[in-house]
Structure formats: C-alpha cells, structure tokens
Amino acid sequence: MTDLMSHEEMATVLPDGLTATAEVPASSANLGPGFDSLGIALGLNDTIGVTTAPAGLEISVEGAGAGEVPLDDSHLVAKAVFRGLGAAGVTPKGLRITCKNTIPHSRGLGSSASAAVGGLVAANGLVAQFAPDRVLTDDQLVQLASEFEGHPDNASASVLGGAVVSWTQAADDSSPIAGCTAECSYFATRLEVHPDIRAVVLVPETRSSTSQTRGILPTHVTHRDAVFNVSRAALAVVALTTRPELLLAATEDRLHQAQRAPAIPLTTRWVSLLRGAGIPATVSGAGPAVLALTVRDIPAALVRRAGAEGLAVHELTIADGARLI
C-alpha cells in the first residue's frame, strides 16, 4: 500500500470554524477495452463543503441523491472526510458537510468515486489551513479513494483529471487482482487528451448496479480475446493523446460489454447505433450511460431519437481533477 502519513495515534484536534469546499468531476471508466484501468474525467461536477464544528455531524444533500442517501456517518462523503483527516493525523470535534450534486447516481458516471474524492479533497483543504505539512499528495488521494472503490479507474480520473491509465498491485503477488484478497496499492498516471476530442454522454432514466453487472462477467476469458483487448487498450492511449481518428477502433472491447448486454439492453443498442454511424461509443463504466468520445458532432437525427427514447444527452468537456474552490 502507498505509504500514508500515520498520525492517527497522535491526532491533533482541529479548531472550530475551518471551512473548505471541493469541486469534483464525474468520470467514465473502461473506455471500451481498458476494463478497470482506463478512465476519463468529465465536466459534470459535484461540490462538497466541509466546516469544522464544536460537536456532532450534520449532512445536507441537494440535487442527485437527495432523500435517498444516508445523512449519518455511513454517508460516503463523510467516511471519506474522516478517512482523509485521519490519514493526516487530525480530527474534528464535529463536522458540517454540504453536498450539491449534479452527477447522477448509479448511471456509470463515477458518482461514488466522486463522493470519495470530493470528501478527501475537502478534508485536505481543512488540513492545509491547520497543518500544511500533512497535506495528502495526489498519489495518496488516488490510493485512499481507490480503497473505497476497490479499483482505481474512476477515482484516479476524478483526482488527476484528463484521461488516466491506472493499475493495481497486490501486496501478495500470488493474490488475484480482481477483489484483491491481499492489501492493494493503486496507481495512476494522467494522459493529456487531444484538444479536438469531446465527450458526449447519453444518460437513461434507469439505473444500474455495478456489483450486479460485475457478477455477470465470466471468471475466465480466451487468450484470443485477451490479446484483442490488450491491443485496443494500447491503441486507446495513442488515440486519446495524438491520433483521435483511431478512436473507433481503439474503443472496441471483447471482455465486458457484450457480456453485460442482457442487463443493459437500451445502452447496448445505443452503443451499436452510434458506432454504426462512425461515432466511437462505449458503455460508460458499468452503465447504463453511454459515452461517446468524438471529434465531430453526433448526427442531429440521433440526438432527437435519443431524447425521444428518454436519454438525456450531454456534451461535456474533458475535465481537470478535483480542486478546492
């Protein structure tokens, strides 16, 4: 595991009235062939505010998830804030947390990773005001956020911004990486996305459970399909950075999208429709959102058809990583 500051046993109490606000982007994972490794940050943001208080924990949520998520210490943002403060060796007497969410939940746009990253970055903002020598680095933020997720693709994209290549290393090399039965270290590096590339997401009204769609996946794949995805994932790095005309080929996949198709039929149909029109489209994460990475407009007729079928169409920038505002 990445070496984190270990101050928990000598935690310093933060003064009341410190405030920090983090803005954290959505993300899309896999990008076709890069299962659990490739990700990209998208310009759709949640805003997390944290204030130290004399006692207690108060959480308010506006927008996505309001009335659905817990408002106690089991809330993911709260867990992330406490984890970040603990890693820096500080503790609050109480906290007030505000969440203003625009990232839709359970749609394949990294809302849980954004919550974890937003909480950690907001915690870092508090630490910076009181113990600046204990501020967590980006590498440490990637590690902590990925521990919440169990894989680093979404979390690292929201921390670093741009596109990312991420990877997982088990402490015990004999451990299977999927599920990581031993302690894991998580790593990522940022790619600078070609300036002509735009992201378009099509978001259905239906939701999808990542854990359920993971359960659909086979435990073994053929050597031929593994080779196919290795070649496409490598090509994706080139396409994203210098050769966007290769994106259609670079976003092909044989390891997870077809296998998940029965669970997300509308998503699967729209990926096929867009790819048939020459638009590089993939399932965004576990779905049901569709991600298109393109250098040209999606035909207006397809946009109208998507709206008629209940899909919200958003053209988004490729975002930078989470930041304090």
Automatic annotation (TrEMBL):
Chief place of localization: cytoplasm
Gene3D superfamilies per the UniProt record, alphabetical: 3.30.230.10, GHMP kinase, C-terminal domain
Signal peptide residue numbers: none
Catalyzed reactions per annotation: L-homoserine + ATP = O-phospho-L-homoserine + ADP + H(+)
Subcellular location: Cytoplasm
GO (cellular component) term, any one: cytoplasm
Annotated ranges, domain GHMP kinase N-terminal: 78-162
Role noted for this protein: Catalyzes the ATP-dependent phosphorylation of L-homoserine to L-homoserine phosphate.
InterPro entries per record: GHMP_kinase_C_dom, GHMP_kinase_C_sf, GHMP_kinase_N_dom, GHMP_knse_ATP-bd_CS, Homoserine_kinase, Ribosomal_Su5_D2-typ_SF, Ribsml_uS5_D2-typ_fold_subgr
Protein name: Homoserine kinase
Example of a GO MF term: ATP binding
EC number(s) given by UniProt: 2.7.1.39
Family of this protein: Belongs to the GHMP kinase family. Homoserine kinase subfamily.
Biological-process GO terms, alphabetical: threonine biosynthetic process
Keywords from the UniProt entry: Amino-acid biosynthesis, ATP-binding, Cytoplasm, Kinase, Nucleotide-binding, Threonine biosynthesis, Transferase
Pathway the protein takes part in: Amino-acid biosynthesis; L-threonine biosynthesis; L-threonine from L-aspartate: step 4/5
Enzyme class: transferase
Residue ranges of every copy of the GHMP kinase C-terminal domain listed in the record: 250-306
UniProt-annotated binding residues for ATP: P104, H105, S106, R107, G108, L109, G110, S111, S112, A113, S114
